[in-house]
Amino acid sequence: MSDPIKIRASIKGSEGEVRVLMPHPMETGLRKDPSGRIPPAHFIIQVSLSLNGRSVIEGALGTSVSANPLFAFQLKDVKAGDRVAVSWLDNTGQKGAAEAVFGAS
Amino acid sequence: MNRRIFLELFSKAGAVAPFIGSGLLRPGQALAVDFNRAPFEAKTAADVLRLTGTGGAEATRDIFLKVPEVAENGASVPIEIASNIPGTTRLMVIIDKNPLPLALQFNFGPEAVPRLQTRLRMAESSRLRIVATAAGKHYTVFRDVKVTVGGCGD
């Protein structure tokens, strides 16, 4: 199982910024490792963000996203105490999730 | 980021607010990404555009794209994109010369700013295309990025 997601939620003015790091190998299935084998594709295909339980951003990823994907997003009209949740799903069915609460600015 | 562009970006983002409630941006509209994986398996940018129905995207200056002109490490190329087009609901990134060019597609609900930062792999120097979708129309901008050390073999 992968390391836990790192998530940081901060308020800038009325906008909330969410920064997420999702530890994941993001194997393309196309590269050779040092022993000459080709590790099978293993990568995040879906990322979801919700604000107070309501879906606000939904993404689909391919293998061109770097290993340990790092994303930053902005949400509108965020208040201290609002709750943001992030989850991912990979091509093998593994999942990860984390949440954070926006602090007072 | 250049301060002027930064300020422009955020002042324009505020311009979307009047459309909320006018019916142009319907809160509660389905946000699910079209989880059709076929465009992610396409091997050319032309096929990605065809499979996503965005081949006719109109060139625009209203998509902000920040990416290094020369990327030293193709394994991790920082990119920041944002659409200033009112009602933008989707952003897509295509790296023409990668073996599988479609890097990502994100759908944004009305509570989200159509903007993101991430890091991408680039196998070699390539054109990078952004496609934004707003009210069913597609807009595009591209930039050529030179890669010193390719990022798909490590």
From TrEMBL, chain A:
<protein>
    <submittedName>
        <fullName>Thiosulfate oxidation carrier complex protein SoxZ</fullName>
    </submittedName>
</protein>
<dbReference type="Pfam" id="PF08770">
    <property type="entry name" value="SoxZ"/>
</dbReference>
<feature type="domain" description="Sulphur oxidation protein SoxZ">
    <location>
        <begin position="8"/>
        <end position="100"/>
    </location>
</feature>
<dbReference type="InterPro" id="IPR030995">
    <property type="entry name" value="SoxZ"/>
</dbReference>
<dbReference type="InterPro" id="IPR014756">
    <property type="entry name" value="Ig_E-set"/>
</dbReference>
<dbReference type="InterPro" id="IPR013783">
    <property type="entry name" value="Ig-like_fold"/>
</dbReference>
<dbReference type="InterPro" id="IPR014880">
    <property type="entry name" value="SoxZ_dom"/>
</dbReference>
Automatic annotation (TrEMBL), chain B:
<dbReference type="InterPro" id="IPR032711">
    <property type="entry name" value="SoxY"/>
</dbReference>
<dbReference type="InterPro" id="IPR016568">
    <property type="entry name" value="Sulphur_oxidation_SoxY"/>
</dbReference>
<dbReference type="Pfam" id="PF13501">
    <property type="entry name" value="SoxY"/>
</dbReference>
<protein>
    <submittedName>
        <fullName>Thiosulfate oxidation carrier protein SoxY</fullName>
    </submittedName>
</protein>
<dbReference type="InterPro" id="IPR038162">
    <property type="entry name" value="SoxY_sf"/>
</dbReference>
<feature type="domain" description="Ig-like SoxY">
    <location>
        <begin position="56"/>
        <end position="152"/>
    </location>
</feature>
